[in-house]
Amino acid sequence: MISTYSNVHRSFLQACSLHGTLTVPDATKIMVHLFGRYQPDDTIPDERRLQELIDQINPKLSRYQQKIVLLESDPKLPNYVVFANLSDSPLNRLQTTYPAGELSFFRVVLHELAATQGHKLEQIEWLNLTAKIEEGRNVTKSRAEELLTEWVSAGYLVLDEDGIGFGPKTQVEFDRYLLNNFPDQVEQCRLCKEVLFYGIKCAKCPVSMHKTCAKKYFKKVKNCPACKKPWTVALD
């Protein structure tokens, strides 16, 4: 991996900023392409080199309160690379794109996802949430369907066989908002104490942790940090 800041870093940052969220395989393809273009004599990097590249870029972003995050969250979903803007309230940034009624709907969605077991909603539940918007701020069910598509595309939500859940961008940018507003519904990782949306659960006790935290922890320790019994849950 190159040690000085180069066109590889600049172009990868530009791609992350443009897309907002990328699956790790897609981000890896971009990285490989950039190395082939700007550093053709270097060893072709693989997925394991992504974090190193991100770590070299992030110091340049800290002054702007931005960062790139390699997110390993739900064991059933892909891992993501997320370009995060942490400069102000994430809801304030959405005000430039969505009217008051749709922002109110987004708040309702966040509340329901935070309060629901497993942080997942069925699509029929999604449509029924339009009835919970503040009076005078209406969103039709047809518009709610359009918003679901938009917010999944933007990375705010995910839609899979288990339903609708917190997307990678929400997990990174809204973690403090959710912890402050829904402290009784949002879990924290046993290891890093940060907000936990979808993590690894112990088979023998209720403790949960981020997949990334668990991978680091169990390189040195073989027992659950809470119940101290041997860890048996797969980490991949």
Automatic annotation (TrEMBL):
Main location (coarse class): nucleus
Molecular function in Gene Ontology: ubiquitin protein ligase activity; zinc ion binding
Keyword field: Chromosome, DNA damage, DNA recombination, DNA repair, Metal-binding, Nucleus, Transferase, Ubl conjugation, Ubl conjugation pathway, Zinc, Zinc-finger
E.C. no: 2.3.2.27
SUPFAM superfamilies: RING/U-box
Segments forming domain Phorbol-ester/DAG-type: 174-224
Domain of life: Eukaryota
PROSITE patterns noted in UniProt: ZF_DAG_PE_2
Top EC group: transferase
UniProt xrefs under InterPro entries: Nse1, Nse1_RING_C4HC3-type, PKC_DAG/PE, WH-like_DNA-bd_sf, Znf_RING/FYVE/PHD
GO biological process: double-strand break repair via homologous recombination
Pfam families: SMC_Nse1, zf-RING-like
Catalytic activity, reaction form: S-ubiquitinyl-[E2 ubiquitin-conjugating enzyme]-L-cysteine + [acceptor protein]-L-lysine = [E2 ubiquitin-conjugating enzyme]-L-cysteine + N(6)-ubiquitinyl-[acceptor protein]-L-lysine
This protein's record includes keyword Thylakoid: no
GO annotations of cellular component type: nucleus; Smc5-Smc6 complex
Localization per Swiss-Prot or TrEMBL: Chromosome; Nucleus
Family the entry assigns: Belongs to the NSE1 family.
UniProt subunit comment: Component of the Smc5-Smc6 complex.
The protein's name in its UniProt record: Non-structural maintenance of chromosomes element 1 homolog
Provenance organism: Culex tarsalis (Encephalitis mosquito)
Lineage of producing organism: Eukaryota, Metazoa, Ecdysozoa, Arthropoda, Hexapoda
